[in-house]
Amino acid sequence: MAHQQSTLQDEIVRSITSGTFAAAVLWGAIVCSLLNIVEYNMTGHLTSSYSVGYGQLVGGALAGALYAGPRQEALKAGSCAGAVPVLVLGPITLLLTMTERALTFGIEAVVFESIVLLLIAYPVAAGFGALIGGIGAYIGRWLSYRLTKKRRSA
């Protein structure tokens, strides 16, 4: 059992440090998803429902820093890491708000509102997630380059 656990830990570390596009997107999307869940829960307790989108920024920065290829590809990895959680968590959030609002407004109004949100707001939210993830990837790539450049020269 301990051997299997150490092998799993070694594989996780190897995937983080591999520098491949898929690993960068995977780990960026995981971090982004977790931060989005935390942010969603925090905005539920606040008086205003303003959402910053720091999950996309941090997830994109992580993807940009982890990817070992060219800068343009790192920006694509950050964009994917920022958009994937919106594409996955968006319908779940919509379903949760649909069930909550159906008790108040009636099912017909909620279904109509949800269809409009799904067709209009969902693609826009995914696009903004990709944009913020790309900006985060640029920042993460720049920080990674600066930190490794200083380590190489020391």
UniProtKB/TrEMBL annotation:
Per the UniProt record, one Pfam family is DUF5518
The answer on whether this UniProt entry bears the keyword Transmembrane helix reads yes
Membrane spanning segments where? 12-38, 50-68, 80-99, 119-143
UniProt entry keywords in alphabetical sequence = Membrane, Transmembrane, Transmembrane helix
Q: What is this protein called?
A: Uncharacterized protein
The organism named in the record is Natrialba magadii (strain ATCC 43099 / DSM 3394 / CCM 3739 / CIP 104546 / IAM 13178 / JCM 8861 / NBRC 102185 / NCIMB 2190 / MS3)
